[in-house]
Design a protein that fits this description.
Elements (H helix, E strand, L loop, with lengths): L1 H5 L4 H43 L1
Length: 54
Amino acid sequence: MAEFFHMGGYGLYVWGSYGVVAVFLALELIFLARRKQALLERLTALREMEEDKS
């Protein structure tokens, strides 16, 4: 099992790369959720403004 994680001397590079990708994927999901929330809030405010005009 240790040889699998060592990967012929390239384990640090391979697993480090996986770690970096995992971090950036998690950040992307967080940023997407924040953008969605901001968009929904903006749309709600615009809808309320339109209702006030009517």
